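Protein of interest.
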Amino acid sequence: MLKLCGFAISNYYNKVKVALLEKGVAFEEVNCWPSQEADMLARSPMGKVPYLDIDGRFLCESQVIAEYLEECYRDKPLYPPGALERARVRELVTIMELHLDLMARRLYGQAFFGRTVSDEAKQEVQKELAKGVRAFKQLARFSPFVAGADFSLADCAAGAHLPLVSLATKIVFGRDVFDDYAPLRPYLKMLNERPAFKKMNDDRKAASEAMAARANKG
């Protein structure tokens, strides 16, 4: 059985988790954290999560893992059949990950972990996020799914990443960068009604509460 290694609060872990659940692929979850220890680096060369354990062979990076799953488990595809349509899915995932989550990630320390982000960094993030939001709005379809009529890997990414971007910007800037984007809220609500997303969100909430409880004890 495949083993998905990481932790339930990670949006990249959750992107792969939802893909596995939507595809109906049996897998085991193994809780682990990013590390630069030798044992971790033997499994994930950058020491990051998630990584996939495939009968003792290891694969890292969420997009690489998702592409591997698509090639190996074709019964429930997460990409459309046409080459351009598949590229459009990848295009949306790239915009969400490089130009939304990666930018907003600079705020996560202040938003979620009690750290401080400089005013200069906040201004830079705000400027770059505006470009990412503009690009996302241009590419998103919501008909009803983000890349078109069929559920795709872009939806797995959107459901994992966009709520964190929204929450972090609301906490740090006092305003969600998607506040004026009417299609997003009902779209995310629709995703969260799917069993895979419900499980992902329930597990993430439980993991967040457990982490908060440990922090309060310490």
Summary: The chain has a mean pLDDT of 97. The CA atoms of residues 71 and 187 lie 27 Å apart.
